[in-house]
Amino acid sequence: MKAPQQLEGTSQEQNNNNNTNYNLQEESDKPCLLCVLIDLSTSFLDRLERFLPKDNSGNRDLLEASALQTFLYELIAFLNLVLISNFSNRIAVFVYNERDVQVVYEDTSFSAAGTASLWTEERQERSSRLGSQILKNVADFIDSSSSFAGVVEIETLFSAALSFALCYLHRRMQSEKYDARILCFHASTDVPRQYIGVMNGIFCAQRCSILIDVCDLNEEENSSLLQNAAYLTGGIYFKPQQSESIPLLNYLCNLYFPNRDARKYFHFPVMPIVDNSALCFESGEKIQIGYVCSVCLATFGRKRASCRICGYALE
């Protein structure tokens, strides 16, 4: 006896829904390799104070310590959320300032295939180790940088940190398959001399299908380099606003937690117009027309007899 047509249609609809749910589950279960870059320069620490309640008072050292501690606790909570969502996910955290780049956490304890079967105690140990190592190593990094307090440096090593992260991701992706992402916490101004290095890193990430997300805490100006990084790799560039009712953790969970496949189901804030202007390596100003060294590709706003970067005679 032939089944009613309505039952056939209902069965087909249920199958379609089951297939859709299965596809969504496959996408959400894809392991993620998240590499976090944290700018620990003086400008970043100063701007973290905006996310503290206004009733905080005391000397400046205590205020900066409280702001950094609050930021790290919120970051650790966000990273734990990434691990809980899929225990095959992996995390690495890099910090950098005007003088150095260091790894403060690297999740190497378990293979991607083995983390799914971890017992609850092992998962809790992994989560605890994540927080303790980040707090300890960040404190050691700041202490080691304080010995250079008399040295005046105005350029953060973002280009070097990005290169470190890309090399790390490339090495890990050779042995295991991941959906790789980079999340940048940045507050410094663009460095013209790092323009070529950063753009080369962006093109490398684009070729390797690595997303670059940016949380820019510099409220004074947009970073054209980081805007290009997010735009060209399909990531998110966002400048969180100061608010006592919205902690930084809310921005992290709502914007940067969804992976590549899940983001097509969300509506994110529209990125401001991306500024593709080149930077003059001499003045640091944006230029529309300039001169380019044929050896090192440095750009200048005015004609020069020799390249200031590599010394090559331009005339």
From TrEMBL:
* Record's subcellular location: Nucleus
Q: Which UniProt keywords apply?
A: DNA damage, DNA repair, Metal-binding, Nucleus, Transcription, Transcription regulation, Zinc, Zinc-finger
GO cellular component terms, A-Z: transcription factor TFIIH core complex; transcription factor TFIIH holo complex
Which BP terms does GO give this entry?
nucleotide-excision repair; regulation of DNA-templated transcription
* InterPro entries, per database record: TFIIH_Tfb4/GTF2H3, vWFA_dom_sf
Q: Which GO terms describe its molecular function?
A: zinc ion binding
Compositionally skewed regions (Low complexity) per UniProt: 12-23
- This protein's major location comes to nucleus
Give the start-end ranges of region Disordered.
Answer: 1-23
- Which parts of the chain are coiled coil? none
The keyword Calcium appears for this protein: no
Q: Which family does it belong to?
A: Belongs to the TFB4 family.
Q: Which PANTHER family match?
A: GENERAL TRANSCRIPTION FACTOR IIH SUBUNIT 3, TRANSCRIPTION INITIATION FACTOR IIH TFIIH , POLYPEPTIDE 3-RELATED
Query: What is the official name of this protein in its record?
Result: Transcription initiation factor TFIIH subunit H3
Organism whose genome encodes this protein:
Galdieria yellowstonensis
